[in-house]
Amino acid sequence: MNPVIELVVVLGGTIGLSVPFGMYLARMISYEMRPLEAPLARVENGFYKIVGIDKNKQMTWKEYAFSLFITNIIIGVFIFLVFLLQGYIPSPSHVNGLSIDLAFNTAVSFITNTNLQHFAGDQTLTVTTQIIAITFAMFIAPASGIAAAFAFIRSFIRKNFGLGNFYVDFIRIILTLLLPVAFVSALLLMFLGSPQTLSPSVTINHTLEGHNQTFTTGPVASLESIKELGSNGGGYFGSNSGHPFENPNGPSNIYEMFLMLIIPVSFPIAYAKLVGKARGISLLLAILIGFGILLAISFSQTSGPTGLETRFGSFGSEFFNTVSIATNTGAANSALSGMSVNPVISFFLAMFVQSIPGADGTGILYMLIYVVLTLFIVGLMVGKTPEFMNMKISPIDIKLAAFIFLIHPAIIFIPAVIAFASGNAQSILAVPAGKMTTVSGFTQALYEYTSAAANNGSDYLGTSANNPFWNWSTGIVMFLGRYPPIILALAIAGSFTLKDRKEAIEPIKTHGPLFIAVLLVMTFLLTALTFFPVIVIGPFSM
Amino acid sequence: MIRKLVYNGKKSTEALPGSRGISNINISKVIGNSVLKLNPWYLARENAVMFTVEVLFLVVLFVGMGLTHIPKVFASQTQAFYYASAVILIITVWFSTFSEALSEAQARARVDSLRNLEREVTARKIVGDKREVIVNSRTLKPGDEVLVYSGEVIPRDGIVMEGKAFVDESMMTGESNPVFKEKDDHVIGGTRIASDRLRIEITSEAGRSFLDQMVTLIESATRPKTKNEIALTILLAGLSLIFIMVVGSLLFFAYFLGYIADIGMLIALLVALMPTTIGGLLSAIGVAGITRIGRDNIVAKSGKGIEAAGDADILILDKTGTITEGSRAAITFIPLEKYTERDVGQAAFAASIHDNTHEGKSIVHLAEEKGFIPPLVEKMLVARQLEFSAETCYSGIELIKNKRVELSSELQEEATAIHKFEDGNGDAGRQLKTDENVDSKVSKMLLELDSRNQEFKILKGSVETMLKLVPNVNEAELKWKAQEISKNGQTPFLVAIDIEAIGLVALKDNLKENICQRLEEVRAAGITTVMITGDNILTAQVIAKEANVDQIMAEAKPSDKLTRVQEEQLKGHVIGMVGDGTNDAPALAKADVGLAMNSGTAAAKEAANMVDLDSDPSKILRVVKLGKQLLMTRGAITTFSIANDVAKYFAIIPAMFIATNPKLAVLNIMQLHSPTTAILATLIFNAIIIPALIPLSLRGVTFRPEPPEKTFIRNMLIYGLGGVALPFVAIKAIDMLLTLFLH
Question: Does the model's pTM come out above 0.95?
Answer without folding.
Answer: no
